[in-house]
Write a structure and sequence with these properties.
This protein has six helices and three strands. The protein is mainly alpha-helical. The protein is elongated, with a radius of gyration of 33 Å.
Length: about 180
Amino acid sequence: MRHGKKFNHLGRQKGHRKALLTNMAVSLIEHKKINTTLAKAKALRQFVEPLITKSKTDSMHSRRVVFSYLQKKEAVQELFGEIAAKVADRSGGYTRILKTGTRLGDNADMCLIELVDFNENLLTAAKPKKKSRRRTTKKVEATEGVTEEADVVEEVKAETTEKEVKAEAPKKDSKKDEGKAE
């Protein structure tokens, strides 16, 4: 029985699973977001969030502990430098999983896992302010200008249709003449 065993083995042996999570964590740290399956993303979240928490305290011990998981010096430098500075005030929840549909080949649930503080689109997109609506009696003045513009537009349309009618009239006459000549 597997009562209370919540760890996802991802269909791999322990060594393969550890290597997979290490490589995905390094890619996430370097690229700030990666596209993967939902099961792997959930396992990666459990793997990488304690490392990000550990990177908040910049000591030799915490660097060595994180390096024992990641096994890549550049990723450790990036984690303790840029990422730790941005997540210093955040108490948890460093990653976000966005579902993107299913994979075409095997119908696996796909998703995008990203570091929350590095999504520039969401950070810069401010919510637009709602426009306050007021009922005023000044609408009459505003509609007068619109009707003048509408009259000008109608005059231009009338002139163009008259020109088109005149241009088409000789063509019809010439066709009738050709028919009589034959």
